Amino acid sequence: MADTSCMVVMDSWCGSSGTCPNPARDPPLLCTAPIKYQYANYSANYIYWGKGSVRFQLINQRYNFSFALFTGGLENPKLIAVSEPISFKNPKAPVFPRLAQGKTHDEMAVTWTSGYDISEAYPFVEWGAVGGGQPAARSPAGTLTFSRGSMCGEPARTVGWREPGFIHTAFMRNLWPNKEYYYKIGHELQDGSVVWGKPYTFRAPPSPGQNSLQRVIVFGDMGKAERDGSNEFANYQPGSLNTTDTLVKDLDNYDIVFHIGDLPYANGYISQWDQFTAQVAPITAKRPYMIASGNHERDWPNTGGFFDVKDSGGECGVPAETYYYYPAENRARFWYKVDYGMFRFCVADSEHDWREGTPQHAFIERCLSTVDRKHQPWLVFAAHRVLGYSSNDWYAMEGSFEEPEGRESLQKLWQKYRVDIAFFGHVHNYERTCPVYQSRCMTSEKSHYSGTMNGTIFVVAGGGGSHLSDYTTAIPRWSIFRDRDFGFVKLTAFNHSSLLFEYKRSSDGRVYDSFTVDRDYRDVLSCVHDSCFPTTLAT
């Protein structure tokens, strides 16, 4: 009886692998993998009495659900019984809104998922200023989806496939800086009635250079987990719920989030994108949630990426590029900039070539070089893989303390344009370096930096929730602080001269590492090694 399991499956599943595209090596041997499953012996009475009960928490995923009881475990499942289908009151209802800053500071995008194709209903967002006394505006939404044929390999094309629904994105434009707005997503049906989502509010971004309190969250590699204790495939993100819950509790104390790659770790099981968007919805519905591309979103052999590995489970970037909006010129090229008040963020795509002579290298230099440091003094670079420094054990074994060819084409740009902080994920822990250039600490200071910054501080913030990574035992000189735990980083810009950096653990939200930066504009202009153009002696 120990190998008997109860699985949540969609109503369209089938019980034989002989009639569907399912590789024999991929458990369970069903046309469509279960949404999640529990072993029957989770119920203590089952072992002794042959009966018991288990509880599942379900989210709206647009289709009917059934519960199936199997014996034989995952390797040799044999169907015993199937429940009657159950469904939500309106399976097609709009759910899981996801805010993101648009291509300009006065634009906010909202993306959501529904079961309504454009032929059934017109998607839109209704919005306006809180307390503004003006009638609400309506902005139409574009609609996207993707098919099994869009997937590049298994399990995404086979047992992991399920219909993703329809993904809608609308834009709220000409926003007043820092003003609070309300919005509500909806679908107008053919008879003129409207199916509404829940109402939410958000605060518009500050204008570039605006001198106001600005607070930013940064982390990577969070994943998702099941609150009901169920199992799911690629189930190795034990800290995910802690990070999510801590950020939800602290929602009033930050303004924007950067999740720098490895979002749900769906790895080709498409239903898990719904699980993830539902998990983070209390955050994404109220704060702009900016993402980067990670190996578990993009990588698949022979698909134009920089790494010929199978980490995405055949997704090859398609779900990430569809479920979330980000202000890139080309959605398949996952690099973009964000101007947020006194910050500029240059978000790179470590899954595409970043070396000199590539389009991405040109973008990075353009992003770093065009910021006006008088008004946006805080310049931040971010990417998923460690293109800077990490004392993770596998990087140490390679002897480079970085992704192969990681910083060789970028460190001169970081130095030349005086990047303050470079963030990375991929390694599932936390680490902070000194201000460093060409593997050398440029100052002995560790907690308070003032005056001229002679190098860039590199931060690994990959402890969002996935299984933790080990360090090398020998600590490099440039490594200031390491913590093998789940956590995230918070940046607070008080004004144009003062910045606070804090690393917090997800388990309690307390600060375990921090530093401050105090400097003036002249300190940004001051020449350091490899940062200034040649000068002339002419008068």
Structure description:
Residues 215-430 form the Calcineurin-like phosphoesterase domain. It holds the Pfam family Metallophos. Belongs to the metallophosphoesterase superfamily. Purple acid phosphatase family. Keywords: Glycoprotein, Hydrolase, Secreted, Signal. The protein has 539 residues and is of the alpha+beta class. The protein has 9 helices and 26 strands. It has helices at residues 44-49, 240-249, 271-284, 295-298, 318-323, 359-369, 393-398, 411-416, 521-525, and strands spanning 5-10, 36-39, 65-71, 78-82, 95-101, 108-114, 121-129, 137-144, 166-172, 180-189, 194-203, 214-219, 256-259, 289-291, 336-340, 343-347, 378-382, 421-424, 430-437, 440-441, 448-450, 456-461, 479-483, 487-493, 498-505, 511-518. Strands 15, 16, 17, 18, 19, 20, 22 and 23 form an 8-stranded mixed β-sheet that branches. A 7-stranded antiparallel β-sheet has the order 5-6-9-8-7-10-11. Strand 19 (430-437) and strand 20 form a beta hairpin. Helix 2 runs parallel beside helix 3. It is globular. Mean pLDDT is 92; it is low at 14-18.
